[in-house]
Specification:
- This protein has 440 residues and is α/β, with parallel strands linked by helices.
- It has 2 domains: 6-154 and 302-393, FAD/NAD(P)-binding domain (3-Layer(bba) Sandwich); 170-298, FAD/NAD(P)-binding domain, CATH 3.50.50.
- The protein is built from 10 helices and 15 strands.
- It has helices spanning 13-24, 40-44, 60-66, 81-96, 201-216, 244-259, 324-330, 345-348, 371-385, 389-393, and strands spanning 6-9, 29-32, 100-101, 105-111, 127-132, 138-143, 145-148, 176-177, 193-197, 221-225, 263-265, 270-276, 279-284, 295-298, 355-357.
- The strands form 4 sheets. It has a 5-stranded parallel sheet with strand order 3-2-1-7-15, with helices on one face. Strands 8-14-9-10-11 form a 5-stranded parallel sheet, with helices on one face.
- α1 packs parallel to α4.
- It is globular and about 65 Å long.
Amino acid sequence: MSDLPVAVIGAGPQGMAAAAHLLEHGLEPLVLESGQSPAAAVSEWGHVRLFSAWPELIDQASARLLEPTGWTAPQEGYPTGAQWVQDYLAPLAKVLGGRVRCDARVTAVSRKGRDRLVDADRAAQPFTIHMIDSAGRESRVQARAVIDASGSWRVPNPAGADGVPALGERAAADLITYQVPDRAEPARYAGRHVVVLGAGDSAFNALHELVQIAEQHPDTRITWAIRRVVSEGTFGGGAADELPQRGALGQRAKQAVESGAVELVTGFRTAEVRRTGEQLVLIDEDGRELPAADAVVALTGFRPDLSFLSEMRLDLDPILEAPRRVAAEIDPNIHSCGSVQATGAADLAQPEPDLYLVGMKSYGRAPTFLALTGYEQVRSVVAKLAGDHEGAARVELELPDTGVCGGAGDFDAPESTGGGCCAPAPEPQLISIGRAPADA
């Protein structure tokens, strides 16, 4: 199979970084992207500013590939998604050229002439990657190895608290978005009541955008509904976060609640979305209702699309749907104590030889992935595929601490502030719900 390429699924930051590393090792990549252009997913949240600085967003092999073109790596500041594409990812895609094939959605990965059940001579057969384009045309290519960097952007978690769409959620799809609002396009939210669901960085970004809209359109009302009570970790790590802009995200959300710009509702687990004309009423598992909303922003996380890997032999954690060796480090039920160990080829390998899950997809349903993590992953994986076992085993990354410690805690205890994996749970920090008085 030495004449076959290594198939990389996804032309996002990690997918194209994998291609750069493959070229540096003398291996030929074929990057398959479902979107109409490279980094299509990043472009969809182009208005969102990253909390990682420029040096943390550039893969070193990719930089080495770009430098002969006259490209200079940005050094300062925190780009938006659109700037990340414009100043780094689009130039990288241009250098990779025809090795990136867009409008090629992968529908299945298998072994030539072997379904999942067949052992005989399995590892000696090339992978077959089945694709379909936007016109419905099907095609197939063969590969010596597969690096799945397809991410999880296309599979957002539903609003329903039990992991499946709430009753009525599908029927109300035109009034629900699963992406961060853009203050530059306020029409959907200005002067209306907006409910935000979720308690992670995406929700913090959504609140920031909506507060900006509300400042220009004072009739805008923002309700933020989260599933747990307020605790020390609700608003992130603050000043203790080694990525300062990540810490600042949560602090802005806290300030918005304390000022009354955002109304916080805790312990709300969505069970039903009831439509009344052009408004939605969210109902929780105990029958509590939120005031009718004109728009709902559901940012409850993402999950990996494993459907096209159904013929592959996988060893995934049953909770996170991440590679089993990675899961223990990132499981939010156990801890969120800042830095985790960098993950490499040995952690990402599957029972299917030469198949690797990398990037956001390697974290399954866990929300704590960083670009730095993915770049280290693909460096190690490509070294392994190239036969550089020493390079594959080497760790070249120390991840920044989040400043947050504590796991999920007791799920139903209203006084719970998070389980302990590093230190005793902190005392609750309760924040008043509702708007501040006019003279406050």
